[in-house]
Structure formats: C-alpha cells, structure tokens
Amino acid sequence: xxxxxxxxxxxxxxxxxxxxxxxxxxxxxxxxxxxxxxxxxxxxxxxxxxxxxxxxxxxxxxxxxxxxxxxxxxxxxxxxxxxxxxxxxxxxxxxxxxxxxxxxxxxxxxxxxxxxxxxxxxxxxxxxxxxxxxxxxxxxxxxxxxxxxxxxxxxxxxxxxxxxxxxxxxxxxxxxxxxxxxxxxxxxxxxxxxxxxxxxxxxxxxxxxxxxxxxxxxxxxxxxxxxxxxxxxxxxxxxxxxxxxxxxxxxxxxxxxxxxxxxxxxxxxxxxxxxxxxxxxxxxxxxxxxxxxxxxxxxxxxxxxxxxxxxxxxxxxxxxxxxxxxxxxxxxxxxxxxxxxxxxxxxxxxxxxxxxxxxxxxxxxxxxxxxxxxxxxxxxxxxxxxxxxxxxxxxxxxxxxxxxxxxxxxxxxxxxxxxxxxxxxxxxxxxxxxxxxxxxxxxxxxxxxxxxxxxxxxxxxxxxxxxxxxxxxxxxxxxxxxxxxxxxxxxxxxxxxxxxxxxxxxxxxxxxxxxxxxxxxxxxxxxxxxxxxxxxxxxxxxxxxxxxxxxxxxxxxxxxxxxxxxxxxxxxxxxxxxxxxxxxxxxxxxxxxxxxxxxxxxxxxxxxxxxxxxxxxxxxxxxxxxxxxxxxxxxxxxxxxxxxxxxxxxxxxx
Length: 654
Prior knowledge:
globular; alpha/beta; 6-stranded mixed β-sheet; 17 strands
C-alpha cells in the first residue's frame, strides 16, 4: 500500500488544478517551483513574519524529530497535556498530514493559527467576503489553507472544539523600535533546513505593538467548503474526489484553463536537454488532441492583457488564428497609437496571417519624439517591500528603493552610463539617501526622463509619503518633495492631483501604443522587448557587435569593460540578460520569474531576492561583493535596454 500523504501544500496545489497532484511527486516531470519556495519566502519576508508571530507566544515549544521520536509522535505525546502551545505540530488523519504554525491546546479546545506574510488593513478586512456573500478570489487560497488544516484536526480530534485564525501583517500598525528587522536572521540547521535565528531576544518594547494581527475565520472555513469550484461543484465534493485520485495514483481529466499559462510543470530548454517531461503539454495533448506542431501556434494564453481566457477555453476558442472580429471587437480610444483592444487584435491578425513583421506607428512615434528635450535620461529602480520595518515609526511593507541606474543620451546620439546608486547595508533604510542621489543625478538639466512601466512613479510617490510622515523632517525635505513632484504624476487614489512639469515618460506605454513585434509573443516586458528589437535592428547589431560598451573612447560604463552585446547563437542573437551571471547563482532568472504572481516581481524578483539575501542571510565578504557587482550590472543593463529601444526607433524613423 502506498504511504503517500496529502499535505496542505498539495491541497492548495489541487485547488489551482487537480491534475497537478498527478505530477507533483513524479521526478520525471519538470517542476519550475520545486526548489524555489525558499527564495519566494525570502523575497516576501515569510520566514521573518513566522518567527515574529511565534515571539508573541513565549511559552511555545518547537517540535523537532529525534532518533527516538518522530515529530508526529512527539506531537501526540505533548497534546496529552491539559494546556500547551506548540510550533510545527504534526497531525495525521488517515493519509492527510498537516504541520501547523501554532497550535494551542487548552483542555478540549484547540486554537489553530496560520501565519502568513500577506498584509491587511482595516479596510481590506471588509473585502474578504464580497457583496454577494462569496469569498473574494484573492483570499480563497489563504482561507482554503487553514480550512484544510481545520478539517484534519476535526477528524483527528472529533471531541474537541476547534477555532481557526489567520495571523496577518497589519499595515495599520507602526513599528515600536529601531532595528527590529535585523533581529531575524536566516540560517540553516543541522539538517540543512532554513531556520530563522533571532540574534538577540526581543525586548518588551519590540513586542509592545503587535505588527501581526489575528483574525478569527471560523465562519469562512465553514463557508469555503460549500462554495463551488470552476465546474460548479461544492469544494468539499471536489476535495474528496481529487484526494481519492491522488491516493490511487489515477490522473484527473485535464481541463484547460487560464492558469495553464503559469503552469510550473512546463519545460525550459535545459529540462528538455535532460529528457524531463512537460505536464502542461501532456494535459493539452489529452484534453485537446494537440500534437507537437500545435504547441508552436499562439494561443489565447499568449494574448496580451486579455481577461476572457477561461470563456474562450471553455468554448474551444484556443488558437489566435481561429479568432474572428466578433470574438474580440477592436475599439478606438481616441488617443494616438493603439488602444488595448486594437493591440490585442493586431496580435491576433499577425497570428492569423502568419505575419512575423514589426508594426510601427511612425507618425505617432515621431510626434512623441519631437516633444523630448535633450539630453535624455533613462532610469530604473530596484526596490523591496519588507514586512518588518527597519525603523521606529514605519509601517509594515513600507516600500524601500535600494538601487537605481542612470543612462544619458545627448542630441548627437552619444550614450553614457553616468550614474548609479546601491545601498545594501544590512538594517539600513536607504530611501531618503536614494532620493537625494537621484535628485543630484537629474537636476543638472531639464532633459526628458524615461522609466519603463509605472513602478518608478509608484515608488517615488510612496517615498514622498514616508518623508511627509517622518517625526523629524530632514533639513532638505521640502526640496526633496518638490523634486519628486516635479518628475511624477499623482497616484490615481490621491486627493492631491498633479503632473510634474518634467514628469517621467513611460517607455513601456510607448511600446504598447506605437510598436509591436511578434517575437515578443505579446509580452511588453523589457526582458522580452530587448532581445526582439536586437534581432530586428541592423543599426543596433552593427553598433553593439563591437566591444565599444565600457570603453572611454566610445560608451562609458560603470560596471562593464569592452562588452560586446551582440552574440549570435543558432542564427539568433542571444538575450543580453543571459550574458550576465545570474544574480542568484543557484537559480537562473528565468526560473525566478515563475515564482511570482506579481508582474513587478516577475521582472525585478531576482534583484529583490538578492537584496533580501544581503539583509538576512549569512555570507562571506567575498560573496557579498560578488552579489553587489551582479546587482550593479543587472540594473545597468535595464537602463541600457531602454537606450537601445530608443536608438532602434530613431533609426527606424530615419
């Protein structure tokens, strides 16, 4: 008989897609998230939040296995006590296994607490349940997680009363002390498992304000079992069905849906080289009768910014070449270039006509360029949001900007990497120094400033809000606030409305409106646009095939020496990002993208993980310096990519 256990992580996986349970334990299938849960928890602060939550229960006991006793047996023994608080207790009911964050026993009452690094504030609590009485989709995975644990507990202890709580990061709270963040350090135990080591005991002041909030969700754990899944069945019925399929080793019928686009059981080129199988392809072969050649065709999963993927998949409208105008009407929004629906339809038309050529709105792009003021400035930020703040008076998940890169281009087309900033000092909130350094870089002239996407605008506004809330204002605060307002526009939810006289131009928005290349497969990520435009532009190929980048006589660089960016492999130009050493050498950047749902973290997750490593893990001075150099190169390439896009466009308009 199989000893396979259904754990809460597998339960959550099955809620995404029951067929994933078939692949999860089979090493012959590629799994892009198999080894990277550590990196995701590191970037999102999950380890530190768990450790802080347990500090609220000083009487709690960690359960560890020993030569004499397993964690499961130790839990059983300790729960014989009348009252006890346990960390990482293991409970088994039949073949369902849970490991609880915090389990508190008091006579015949069990209190279950699940700690999550997800943030919440007083307003968001009201959004967990929608107006129609159903649980909000973004909260379902968290509710389902603890509902499963509670279900196991109820069956393992049928005579006990069980209460369930989520412990979440309270964004309304204010950090009571300086340096709290730095007390939680990541290290490995004897078995190689990551653990948080608390470097010095938390003081009564540290614990005087709880940054984490307990929320009772018993009403929601009951509710979720009766809610319906995608097929219209109650969750409890689906749960019993996929459990039995998992235990018997049978495979659920694959049902294509929008989540297939982010399936972790897809293969990357290196997986195929090792003969690993693609669960995604296997599912689509079974469900849709696909053959190898079918996977070469663009599908609704590739269609940019499209919200009706599930509807199309349900009615069998899958390949873009099968769409007609009634399926997605294109509407003009009255602005220059393409509206969102027109861009989607352009992508469809290119697929239908097997047209691989570039589309460029020359007139609109030229009109836009005429408004630019030289010299042009290209900036990119690397940022983080840490749940436990660096300093007293700060809120959890207060945004931190720790790095920027700055390229400049003059009217004659001369390019230089003129500035950068990077602060990796552990425990130091660099945001104010960051703004001062950025102001110093950009205040020398009135040239047009470029960003790529809304990220830089969002963080500058966030930092301005932090400045205005400081208990003691720096002497240059007014100058810093005026500078931020001069290069940004107000957030959509701001009462105070402004557009700075030198408001940054969003290069990504220009890509969306004026430029489309089928080689990007519908993506507007700079990591996809740069390789595509390099493969198209003879001008860029000729210029950057020479080792002129990082050369005093040609293009000055702060981190590269005589770098050649054009390297052909099998007839195409290698992605410049692949020419860099991965920031996280144990994990390629393409895998890190698959860890995150958030679009920015897909782009900047590698840098965020590196920053978290520098803050919270033990490393040698050599490793620290290597990581610092890698971050500098990575961010510099981001702004060089922006320069190259503009250079290619200028050449295309000549």
